[in-house]
Amino acid sequence: xxxxxxxxxPTPTHASNLTWHPDTNMTQFKQTNYPIIERAQGFYMHTTDxxxxxxxxxxxxxxxxxxxxxxxxxxxxNSLKTKQHVILGGMAHPSVIELSQKLANITPGSxxxxxxxxxxxxxxxxxxxxxxxxxxxxxVQGKNRFIALQDAYHGDTMGAIGVGxxxxxxxxxxxxxxxxxxAESPNCLQCPHGQQPxxxxxxxxxxxxxxxxxxxxxxxxxxxxxxxxxAGGVKISPAKYMTKLRKVCDDYNxxxxxxxxxxxxxxxxxxxACNHSxxxxxxxxxxxxxxxxxxxxxxxxxxxxxxxxFENKIFWHSHTFGGxxxxxxxxxxxxxxxxxxxxxSTVKGNGKELRRIIHHCAQRLGVAxxxxxxxxxxKLSIAEKGGCMAKAVQRGERxxxxxxxxxxxxxEAGVFVRPLGDVVYLWAPLTIEAREFDLIQHALNKGxxxxxxxxxx
Length: 457
Ligand SMILES: Cc1ncc(COP(=O)(O)O)c(C=O)c1O
Fold this sequence. Notes:
This protein is an alpha/beta fold. Helices cover 38% and strands 16% of the residues. It has two domains: 12-68 and 342-453, Aspartate Aminotransferase, domain 1 (Alpha-Beta Complex), CATH 3.90.1150.10; 70-340, Type I PLP-dependent aspartate aminotransferase-like (Major domain) (Aspartate Aminotransferase, domain 2), CATH 3.40.640.10. It has helices at 12-15, 26-29, 58-61, 70-82, 94-106, 120-137, 158-162, 167-170, 205-215, 239-251, 304-308, 325-340, 343-365, 388-394, 399-412, 434-453, and strands spanning 37-41, 44-47, 52-55, 113-117, 145-149, 181-183, 219-224, 228-229, 235-236, 255-259, 283-286, 298-302, 367-372, 375-383, 415-416, 423-426. A seven-stranded mixed beta sheet has the order 4-12-11-10-7-5-6, sandwiched between helices. A four-stranded mixed beta sheet has the order 1-2-3-15. Helix 4 (70-82) packs antiparallel against helix 12 and helix 13 packs parallel to helix 16 (434-453). It binds pyridoxal-5'-phosphate. Pyridoxal-5'-phosphate is lined by residues 119-121, 124, 153-155, 225, 230-231, 259, 261-262, 287.
């Protein structure tokens, strides 16, 4: 190595072919000047070419407290200095013992038994397997299928795809995954039952009830993303859907798995999204904001009923990095911050501000929108006649293309966001402040201007 010639900062062309980016059209991607993040601190990411971007989607929904919080990083480093990996098969370490205790304390009901994995999808796999084995453990045969919701997403491993099959993502796997029974999901923005929030009697639940009635004897569990279906289009659902779901599970002897990988830890305004309805699932799956994105860690937490069925039986399931010590320390530091900094109250206040700016922007565009906690979305394909978006669509533009135009303008203005089909959404760190809201508002205005002028030049 020649010390006199410093290594040049990587440019998009250096990186493009050798890293195969997820969910990315690589052919188009390598032709763009995509951001390369050199440093990320607080709410901002800094690129190698000197740009500063506010993280509008918490880096795939996990960086709930901003990037590189020193309290979290320090605990991780201290942990790494004493040990790296500890095999959890047949051993433990103090950090995992403490974390399991804390999780048992903060989760509702008897959700007391934490099974650790690394990514969300691997915890979903564990939850699905736990549910199937629960029934064989107690001597009930044939309950080995699942019910999931339309537009659900639970990760990209084969079992998770089976319960979250999204045509646009998973179509090539249609023949090979074991697909769940799929029930209609709540679609409050454009209720197919013609209801408004005030008149809603959860008519959409009828489909679930029908499937349960027909197939309950073969169903191990129903899996759901409570309150918000994320990757399937940021669809927000009424809390009473969960109440009905819990009851139907109890009535028909089916386990309930709540996948809160995306929404757990205050994202919807409550510590857990299930808390909106006081529903306690049999298995709760968490990830992402568990370590606020500081380490890959996920967990499937089983209640006493599920756990006790394994007495003297082995759950033959493991992930090498499950319960990794420094990831446990990250989670412990994060749980401390959530409590110490009263993130619950922060989200209450920030949620109001988010609602205000999303509402304002959606009105300018003339599109449907929804918010819950620190999630805000606008669906560009549901446009009011005569509004700015409807005019653009009339000119022959597709809503999904316009969503890209909108988000590109936001990125240009300094806020990193990605569209989800025809949906523009915000999932910023929970703790952003007035300065960040101003920047987001500015970027949203730029998005509106881009739509207004699109197709005119
Ligand atoms: C609800 C839900 N479940 C599971 C997953 C999969 O998590 P991971 O990408 O960490 O595997 C995601 C990812 O976005 C998710 O939103």
